[in-house]
Write a structure and sequence with these properties.
about 350 residues, alpha/beta, Rossmann fold, 2 domains, six-stranded parallel sheet, five-stranded parallel sheet, about 15% strand, elongated
Length: about 350
C-alpha cells in the first residue's frame, strides 16, 4: 500500500484485515511520540522476526496513563499512527485505549509479541497471554542514546552561548607541553577575563590540542591531574568551567594509538562540535579566543559566531590576524573590548 492511511485500522475493523497479514504475525505496542532512529531500528528488527508487523498504538488517553508528563504525548494518536504507517516495515497500525494492550493481544492472537527496552518479559501479563496459545514473547533492546523523553528535554532546554578558550597561550603561559601543576602559570589578567565572560552569561569551555600525549611526553593521567588542578584553582577564584575538551592525537606521534589524523585536532572542528552537543551550546551565539590561526580556523569550521586572536609566546601567535574578527594583546584586553561591543 502506497498511502499510509490505508495501513491504519481501527480496532473494530481488525477482524476483517487480519487474514491478509502474512504469518508469523509479529505484534508490538507503544506510544511512539516523536519517532526517532531508535524507534525505526527497533521496528525493523521486530519485522524481521516474522511475516508481518502490526503496531498497536496507545491512544492519547492511554498514553496519559503512563505518567510521561501532563503535555505528553506531543502528537495526537492519529498523527503518530500516520507516521508509523509510513514505514515500510510496518504492515498495520491500530489503537488501544487501556494502560496495557492485554485485551487487544487476546483478540489478535499474534505469533510473536515484542517489547522494546530492558523489560523482564517473564513478569509481564502480555507474555503469559501470548504463551497460552503457543506464541513467543521477546524483548529487543533499544538503540543506545535515543530517547523521546531526553530529546524533548533537550529541545526545551534553551541553548547557551559559550566562550571557547584555547588553553596554552590564552589561559596559561605557553611553555611547550606543560603537564605539571608546578609549571603552570596563568597569563596575567586571564582569570579576570574569564570571570567577566562568565558574568556576561558565557559558559566557559576550554578546547585544547595536547599533542604531548601522542608524542609520549606525558600521560593521560598527568594531563587530567593538571586539568583538575586548573579547574579547582579557577573555582576557588569564582570561575566555573563548563567543560574541558582536549585532542590527544598527532599524526607524527610516538604513541601508536594516538598517532593518527583525527577530526578533533584544531583546525578541525571536532572539539567544538562535541562540546556544543554535550553542553547544549548555540555555536552561532558563541565566541572563541585563541592564539593561533588553527584556533580561528576551527571556529570557522564549527560555525562559531565570532573568533578572536590574542598574542602569546607561541611562534604562530599573531601570524594571521586577518583570519580573526579582532586581534588583542591578551584575554583580558580582548574580553574588555568585546563586552562593550554592541554586536555581542
Amino acid at each position: 500500500m502506497s498511502n499510509p492511511a490505508e495501513k491504519i485500522c481501527p480496532p473494530d475493523q481488525l477482524a476483517a484485515r487480519l487474514p491478509a497479514l502474512a504469518r508469523p504475525l509479529v505484534m508490538t505496542n507503544g506510544v511512539f511520540d516523536v519517532l526517532h532512529r531508535g524507534h525505526v531500528s527497533y521496528l525493523h528488527r521486530a519485522a524481521e522476526l516474522g511475516g508481518s508487523l502490526l503496531v498497536a498504538l496507545n491512544t492519547d488517553r492511554s498514553a496519559k496513563m503512563l505518567g510521561k508528563g501532563p503535555d505528553r504525548p506531543l502528537h495526537s494518536d492519529v498523527d503518530r499512527a500516520y507516521v508509523l504507517a509510513g514505514l515500510g516495515c510496518v504492515d498495520l497500525v491500530t489503537f488501544f485505549d487501556t494502560r496495557t494492550p492485554v485485551e487487544l493481544i487476546r483478540a489478535l492472537r499474534p505469533d510473536i509479541y515484542v517489547k522494546g527496552g530492558d523489560y523482564d518479559m517473564e513478569t509481564l501479563e502480555e507474555t503469559q497471554v501470548v504463551r497460552s496459545w503457543g506464541g513467543q514473547s521477546l524483548a529487543l533492546p533499544f538503540v543506545e542514546g535515543f530517547s523521546t523523553t531526553a530529546l524533548v528535554q533537550r529541545i526545551r532546554t534553551p541553548l547557551r552561548k559559550a566562550a571557547f578558550l584555547d588553553r596554552d597561550g590564552v589561559i596559561n603561559r605557553d611553555r611547550a607541553y606543560v603537564h605539571r601543576w608546578q609549571d603552570f602559570e596563568f597569563m596575567p589578567g586571564a582569570i579576570e577575563g574569564m570571570r567577566r565572560l562568565q558574568q556576561a552569561g558565557y559558559a566557559l569551555v576550554v578546547v585544547t590540542n595536547q599533542s604531548g600525549l601522542a608524542r609520549g611526553y606525558y600521560t593521560e593521567a598527568e594531563y587530567q591531574a593538571l586539568s583538575s588542578a586548573m579547574r579547582q584553582e579557577l573555582a576557588r577564584q569564582g570561575v566555573e568551567l563548563a567543560g574541558i575538551y582536549h585532542c590527544p592525537h598527532h599524526p607524527a606521534g610516538a604513541v601508536a594509538d594516538l598517532a593518527i589524523a583525527c577530526d578533533c585536532r584544531k583546525p578541525a572542528p571536532g572539539l567544538l562540535l562535541q562540546a556544543a552537543q554535550e553542553l547544549q551550546l548555540s555555536l552561532t551565539d558563541s565566541l572563541l579566543i585563541g592564539d593561533k590561526p588553527s584556533d580561528i580556523e576551527a571556529a570557522r569550521a564549527a560555525g562559531v559566531g565570532h573568533a578572536y586572536l590574542v598574542d602569546s609566546d607561541n611562534p604562530e601567535s599573531g601570524t594571521a590576524p586577518h583570519l580573526a574578527d579582532g586581534h588583542f594583546a591578551d584575554l583580558l584586553t580582548c574580553t574588555t573590548a568585546l563586552l562593550g561591543a554592541a554586536t555581542l
